[in-house]
Amino acid sequence: MPLELKIGSRKITPSISLTILIFLSIAFILSLSSLTSAQKKTVETARKEAASTQKKPAQVKSSKELPGQKAPAANLTILKENKFLEEELNLAKKSEYYFIINLKDKKIELRARGMVLKSWMASSLRYSGKPVPLKVTALAQKSALNPPKRKMLKPGENQEKAEQTGAQPAKSEQTTSTSPTADNFELEALEITDMPGSYELILDNNLEISVRSKAKGKERIKQTKETILWYTWLPVKNYLSRKKEPNPRMIVYFDNPREAQGIYWAFIDGLKGLVWLP
Amino acid sequence: MMKIWKVLIIIVSLIYISIILIFSLAWIKNLKQISEWKTAYNFKIDPKAKISPEAQKATLKKKIQSLQPKGVYIMVDSAENKYYLKNGDQTIKEGLVSTGSGVILVDPTGKRSWVFDTPKGEFFVKSKIQNPYWVKPDWAFIEEGEVIPRKMEDRVEGGVLGDYALGFGSGYFIHGTLYTRLLGRNVTHGCVRMADKDLEEVFKAARIGTRIYIY
Question: How far A216 CA lies from chain B's nearest CA (Å)?
Fold first, then answer.
């Protein structure tokens, strides 16, 4: 007996059921894409409407939530920028370095006294979860699968080993570096190339930044899996989670691994900074 | 048999539809959260304010700019082993340096240890020395497996620091080097080594109090 379904007097064969399911899936994907574009349009129209009804410009008292009157959207950009500049001024007054993560330009900068010391441009940047407030935050932890290890020199042990084997003890680079060239000299040193290309930066406002660089082999498969999970499992996990506002997360990609390594080098524990979306 | 198949198909369809539903709701929430990153900064307007936001922005930018170094300053990138001699936004000269190796030296007794890092931060030129000589610290002897001398004269070594040295505190210097082939690598015990020609120009441009940024 062939497999049959009936709706009233009509027969629904498996092939028809499958077609209906495929049609539903396509409809769902199209509705998702229309949702995203609709959301973008509502934000832009809201800004335009606010700009047309703008009256007197005024000074700002910043607050995270708004119990009172909202700022017109046209002023919002300037108000946001002013808040950012206020926070940066507090950081720039001190001699310590600070970082600025600009989510719109996908740029990470190391600054001191208001001037840019070094900047890194990400090829791609994604974020999700609870929005990060525009307040000074600090690097709480750097987490890498293979953190760099410092070389330990214990001259007493080396001397004993050399005496046992009858070989000459290892000398410092100052005395032996005149003959080898810089290119082929094997250094016992911690260099930028020893830094990891993929790691996590955890800030004290619970923002977890995953830094990734172009990789091959297993690491690439891992990154592809991460991307798929970001778009599929992470939204579902946040939705089903008991937390109303899931922890903020960010993932930053660099084409050149040296850029990711440079950030790991420059971002020392306790480094303060700002994360903002102009 | 047919009924079982029908029930199975209905169950599978329901599961599939519910997955799509959960997924779409999750995505709606996700998109809403992402859009909140742009609109999270909601400010109260103070109707009695005297200064416009544009004027406030200009004032803040001016204040930040006033903190920047005036005149010549030196930047040292310890990751790339490069230096930049700058005046405002203009780079006067740049070149290769050698910075700290990051190695940890442990005293054979185990009581002392030294980390050969070039310190990072904002510094100032505290001393300018011509024809400097090196007063070797204890670690220089320990590293070579030599006995630490008791007399100060036995610690002095000339001709290894180049023609000039700029001190920036805590025993750290920007100085010359015999090992020019190693410029661009992390090989020093913490000081910043520079090629002779670069060092001469930096020495002449810098004054006591010139800022040095090492990162």
Answer: 24
Tell me, yes or no, whether B44 and B141 share the same domain: no
Using a CB-CB cut-off of 8 Å, the residues of chain A touching B186 are 187, 189-191
ipTM score for this prediction: 0.89
**Domain match, B59 and B112 both:** no
* pLDDT tens-digit readout, A90-114: 999 999 999 999 999 999 999 999 9
Structural domain that includes position B169: 70-214
Query: What residues contact residue A104 under an 8 Å CB cut-off, 6+ apart?
Result: A277, A278
CA torsion sign for A103, B89, B71, B132 is positive
Same structural domain for residues B104 and B204? yes
Q: Is B158 on the interface with A (CB under 8 A)?
A: no
Q: Taking Cα atoms as reference points, which of A7, A121, A133 lies closest to residue A64?
A: A133
B52 → chain A, closest CA residue: A58
- pTM equals 0.80
> From start to end of chain B, where are the E strands?
43-46, 72-77, 82-87, 90-100, 104-106, 113-115, 121-124, 127-130, 133-135, 156-158, 164-169, 172-175, 186-188, 192-194, 211-214
Tell me the percentage of chain A whose pLDDT exceeds 70. 64
For A230, counting Cβ atoms within 10 Å of its Cβ (0-12 exposed, 13-18 middle, 19+ buried), the class is middle
Same domain, B79 and B126: yes
Clarify whether residues B76 and B34 are in a common domain. no
Would you kindly state where each structural domain of chain A is located, as residue ranges?
Answer: 11-51, 96-146+190-276
How far is residue A218's CA from residue A209's CA, in Å, rounded to a whole number?
21
pLDDT in tens, A193-217: 999 999 999 999 999 999 999 888 8
Residue B200, min C-alpha distance to chain A (Å): 22
For the domain made up of A96-146+190-276, give the CATH fold.
Answer: L,D-transpeptidase catalytic domain-like (2.40.440)
Which one of B49, B65, B81 terminates a domain?
B65
Q: Which of B40, B65, B90 is the last residue of a domain?
A: B65
Q: For an interface test with A, which of B10, B15, B42, B57 has the most A Cβ atoms less than 10 Å from its Cβ?
A: B42
Interstrand relation of A249-254 and A272-276 (parallel, antiparallel or unpaired): unpaired
Å between A146 CA and nearest CA of chain B: 17
pLDDT digits (tens, 9 = 90+) for A229-250: 998 888 888 888 877 778 899 9
Q: What is the pLDDT of residue A6?
A: 62
